[in-house]
Amino acid sequence: MKVTIVDYSSGNISSVINSFKEVAQNKATIEVTSDLNKLKSSDKIVLPGQGSFKSCVDALNKLSGLNDTLNEFVIANKKPLLGICVGLQMFADVGYEETETKGLGWISGKVSKIDNQNGKFKLPHIGWNQINILKDSKILNEVQNNSHMYFVHSYEFVPNDKNVISATTDYSSNIVCAVEKENIFGTQFHPEKSDKIGLKIIQNFINL
Amino acid sequence: MLKNRIIPCLDVKNGRVVKGINFVDLKDAGDPVEQAKIYSDGGADEICFLDITASNENRDTIYNVVEKTSKKCFVPLTVGGGVRSVDDISKLLNCGADKVSINTAAVNNKQVVVESSKKFGSQCIVVAIDAKKNGDVWEIYTHGGRNKTGIDALKFAKEMEKSGAGELLVTSMDRDGTQVGYDIDLMSKITSAVNIPVIASGGVGTLDHLVDGIKLGNASAVLAASIFHYGKYSVKQAKEYLDSKGIPVRI
How is domain A2-207 classified at the CATH fold level? Predict the structure, then answer.
């Protein structure tokens, strides 16, 4: 089993690397790379992302051929991919952070700023919040409803087809925090920073 | 519902914890990695390291500590103390810190906050504000509270929010180390002035002080050092107490 974390200058990914290595031990190989051939030969890909939607999309586009490789992996070959935080947001058609930016378009929808009800709620949404599990999801296997996960974000993914939503969280409104569409998985929260229950999600993904 | 966070803070000097926890099962009371692990296993929502290493030669030791801790603790890790430049922030993040707290450098040159939040995202930039009451206003101090700046803390808080800080860590210099409670007046003024989360710090001596920081000061998170270090309370006890007072916590 070879799990590859995409290294595309998307901000701080050391915690993602540490958590995947901790979970994998010697059951899976965790590689961190932007090498297209290595990505192609992976069994699974993790797409992390921190900072703004635009900065992450720009960083993806900067690496020649990376977009095509990811599209082939996910759309043509239907292999599993996990997007974390902005990594999940980039599944959308379009994002509105900084300026209107085209996303990967894997799950139809948009990424817009969380409505904080005129300052009634602080932004970023930082800290531990509970998730409401809406459907059976392979990566949420054995994760109890209302489990706490660690969040840090100001923008939210709003998918057009609500059937892709596997969990939401309550803040100023109901925020989509986990999606699953066939082989495509995403979490808005950070499983790598969500203690044992977060590591369970990583384990579920590795074991898919 | 979003939970209020409890953040134990460890003072680290030359790679060792200065004020250790008095736990019997602790093999090495000075090892920050082992102490951070105890806190995270005990339910800490986040761990904070404050590097108080005085000499520049020993600064590399903190990178080593952060690297080892981030391989063992899977809750957010915030590191502050002596962070001077975007390059320092980059190094700490690469070692496994999730957030970096900036104090003196933010006061001297707000571009450090502007640039680093652009480069790494606001989510990892915490601006630490050390403030002391002077008449009717609070004044910012730098260099670990040694230098007076004449800058108004409320104005500075708003400016840091605009510059891209994702959170503010507000310490009352009057209360720090006194164990008489947070400066609630300062906390509530800052929390109502900005729209980003505020972490209250400085002066915790009892669990009721944590309650006050959240209920009266409107802090999103409470940071404390001595009450946890000396084993007076565990993080678990603190959370159970907050829960009994109707404060939402992760249990």
Answer: Rossmann fold (3.40.50)
